[in-house]
Amino acid sequence: AILVPIASASQHHPFGAPPSKRRASPAQQSATMPLRGGIVAIIALGCGAAARAHAQAPDTELVVAHFKEDLSWAARWNTSGVRLRVYTKGDVPISVEAERLPNVGRESHTYLSHIVNNYDALAKWTVFTQGAAPRWGYRHGDSGSGHLTDEIDFKDYMEPFHGGKDSFFALSTVAHLPSGIQSTRLGMLTDSLNSVSNALCPASGPDGWSAWWVDESHPHRRAGREMLAFYHKYVLQNDATTGTALAPVTLAFVQGARFAVSRERILKRPRAYYEALLERVSHSRNPLEGFFLEAMWHDVFHPERVQAAAPLCEYMPLPESLAAMTYAEMFEDSAQRLTAKDMVSGYFDARQLSDAYNPGVTEETTEETTAAPSETEVTTHAPSETDESTTDASSEATTEEPETTQ
């Protein structure tokens, strides 16, 4: 703390006596020197402590949100210049050291806990990831899905300031709110694209995305208005009216919540900002806000480039009346476009897409997997239009939830 002496208020001046216009005598100047020196010393001590904290921070830190996944892949990154930081909410992994956190809030709680608790000692470059080994593709309900798109490799995340940028996001899904319809990056549907991009957006502009599709059971679909209100109140922290807050917005995000950011990028928001978000995901094991934040991390760390102001990429045009396709229709449409526009070599069948990416089919559920939560399995603290109080719709019988998300 920096201690600054405050002069006692004058009886004639309720806010303190005005400063004297007379020059202080040498004796008076000498008398104040020890006090000034003490203040300077205290300030220097505080600055020195902050400097030491940054000096002790690693160049790169890999933050893993673990439940029951095999982390042998992560242990390989525990090398010189990289600090592996595993937070577990399930079984303690035997391959690496881990810190236990309460089993609440999914990976959002893990990431925010790390930021809040290490705000003054963040690494120059921090990679945030779920516990599943990073590999291409995604299958709903499969905790082994690695969520990588195009030809991106995990080492791209681990390279500080990759491509000369202070963050690394590879957007793989886009959701329209409040409708909750979605579009998928084609690099997540197939690994056979002729043109790929390892950057924020696909290489082919709008053609790099699927047609818009809908999953009636998805949290974005069921709670689109609450998600939009959460975005404005807790991510943008604006004072928009209800009508403005519920204006449509399109949010692109990294499916699986994997990204890398610099220390300076995290520090663009004050600690209190992250504390407020952390509080929202600290009340239940599977909060709806956890799914909300998965779609909002880019805007959390990029206050100067929020998607409410402008889209991050070029997307497929929204369908008329927001009438999106089914999964089967989206796969068929994508396969036809991939073939017709020579985006892949040879004939391409819709079954090749559905085998690689099938968000509508859940494999046999085990303790280590979870589908999108049902109406009775989630707790939401997002404000509604008419009620700012929290509602708890979770079941007492809810089991531990892994970090994996749709």
UniProtKB/TrEMBL annotation:
InterPro entries given in the database record = DUF3431 (IPR021838)
Q: Where is this region: Disordered?
A: 1-30, 355-406
Superkingdom of source: Eukaryota
**Composition bias, Low complexity:** 368-380
Q: Which PANTHER family match?
A: EXPRESSED PROTEIN, GLYCOSYLTRANSFERASE 2-LIKE DOMAIN-CONTAINING PROTEIN
> What does the organism's lineage look like at the top?
Eukaryota, Sar, Alveolata, Dinophyceae, Peridiniales
Q: What name has this protein been given in UniProt?
A: Uncharacterized protein
Q: What single Pfam family name could you report for this chain, choosing any that match? A: DUF3431
